[in-house]
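Subgroup meeting minutes
Present: P.N., E.W., G.H.
Scribe: E.W.

1. P.N. recapped why we're keeping a running log of single-chain structure predictions: easier to compare across weeks, and new members can see raw inputs and outputs side by side.
2. G.H. added today's entry (262 aa).
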Amino acid sequence: MRHLIRTGLASLLLLAAATTARAEEITVFAAASLTNAMTQVAQSYATATGDTLQLSFASSSTLARQIAAGAPADLYISANQKWMTWLADQDLIAANSRHDLLANALVLIAPADSDLAPITINSQTDLTSLIGDEDRIAVGDPDHVPAGIYARQALENLGQWDTVEPRLARADNVRAALALVERGEAPLGIVYATDAAIATDVKIIATFPENSHPAITYPVAITTGKTNPAAVKLLAWLLGDDAGVIFAEYGFNRPATSPKTQ
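Output recorded in log:
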């Protein structure tokens, strides 16, 4: 077990230890960019424990709003801190269960058959010069989708937001933005590095500088209400080495800092 699991989580585990050995069902709401990795996690976890994960994937904002409206999620994994904090401010996150689970990077992609060569993105780069007059750059909606929010922050820091913003194709989530580029409907897209890694019909043109946007972290927490002890055990497993191996296979890293607990 990773040393990052501390007193708060250990206390919750005492509750889990009191449950019977029968198989449990755990409902997990996870950011769309985790679709492939969490599907594999669910299979591995079921094999290891017998517990079944019911997975729901969408934009972090959509999932957070569903939880606030009473959706029966046991565990929530967001693609940014904003929506986890939004739930915490409403006392919808169990005390001491919040941890930073994963890290990611932001990249610029093009269709695999594009003539565009790799570039370096900096304050001198004009992304609109890489697309036609009628073309748009696919991105998760910067008003609420975490990948889009990171993209906006990066473009603002690089002094390009005012130029690029009118040329964006705003998608409901990052996987929808990825699909626009995969289908050739957009010549460029801004997505997570892990999304590009699982796609066969796109290529990475550039990686946004790390200092152009806040660190991309995925916090995880148990929701409030009647705590499902099986969710506590799952949280501990997600923070451990077995899950870490699976996440790494899909390109995710562990955060450089200790988990944030709240």
